[in-house]
């Protein structure tokens, strides 16, 4: 009779291990539309196709470091602080093999992306107006974009411009216009004002009226 000492032993090395990647949905507003930043893939897999900036995790590398490295090397973006969004673990998401993606999201004002967008290998795609572009992304990136947009819309439903896309100070109309772009829908003016105004700090100044009548100027509350 075999004893426990005779039973075969296993270790973590005996189990199959997936590769781990990081992919980042960088969202912004440009031309009155909510857009996501894409990079053209180089000599590697899916050469020439557009995708989210991403990379495989190196040995003993932190997720946050891998994200910043991929943004810097693939898109020419530095100085951002992406946050984890969700793990995407569909075994069929990557035709190279079993790859888990720890997806991240960041919201970046357009002015901070202008240098990166000078490259032919970097572009913006509307999450609404160019569905074929986003839907055709490899590696399940369309699902990541959809989740990132959902997260952003939830955040903007609760607070005034939490992604700081608007330059301060701004009018309530400018703020509502931005929130409508993010929401992808019209928002009732009075309801929006009553909800957002308590979360803002007045500057005591008025707009110059070059775009409509003079209006009170606001800042996001600290």
Task: Write the SSE topology.
Blueprint: E1 19-30, E2 33-40, E3 50-51, E4 54-56, H1 63-75, E5 83-88, E6 99-107, H2 114-117, E7 122-126, H3 131-135, H4 141-158, H5 172-183, H6 189-196, E8 200-206, E9 216-220
Parallel strand pairs: 1-6
Antiparallel strand pairs: 1-2, 1-4, 2-3, 2-7, 5-6, 8-9
Describe the overall structure.
With 222 residues, the protein is α+β, with helices and mostly antiparallel strands. The protein has 2 domains: 15-156, Nucleoside Triphosphate Pyrophosphohydrolase, CATH 3.90.79; 159-220, Arc Repressor Mutant, subunit A (Orthogonal Bundle), CATH 1.10.10. 27% of the residues lie in helices and 26% in strands. It has 6 helices and 9 strands; from the N terminus they run ββββαββαβααααββ. It has helices at residues 63-75, 114-117, 131-135, 141-158, 172-183, 189-196, and strands at residues 19-30, 33-40, 50-51, 54-56, 83-88, 99-107, 122-126, 200-206, 216-220. The strands form 2 sheets. Strands 1, 2, 3, 4, 5, 6 and 7 form a 7-stranded mixed beta sheet that branches. A two-stranded antiparallel ribbon has the order 8-9. The radius of gyration is 22 Å and the shape is elongated.
Low-confidence stretches: none
Coarse shape: elongated
CATH architecture of the largest domain: Alpha-Beta Complex
- The value of Rg in angstroms is 22 Å
Largest sheet: number of strands, sense, barrel closure: 7 strands, mixed
- Average predicted local confidence, pLDDT: 89
The tally of domains stands at 2
Order of helices and strands: EEEEHEEHEHHHHEE
Q: How many β-strands, per DSSP?
A: 9
Our count of helices gives 6
Share of residues in helices: 25-40%
CATH topology of the largest domain: Nucleoside Triphosphate Pyrophosphohydrolase
Structural class: alpha+beta
Strand content: 25-35%
Distance between the termini: 71 Å
CATH fourth-tier homologous superfamily of the largest domain:
Nucleoside Triphosphate Pyrophosphohydrolase
At the first level of CATH, the class of the largest domain is Alpha Beta
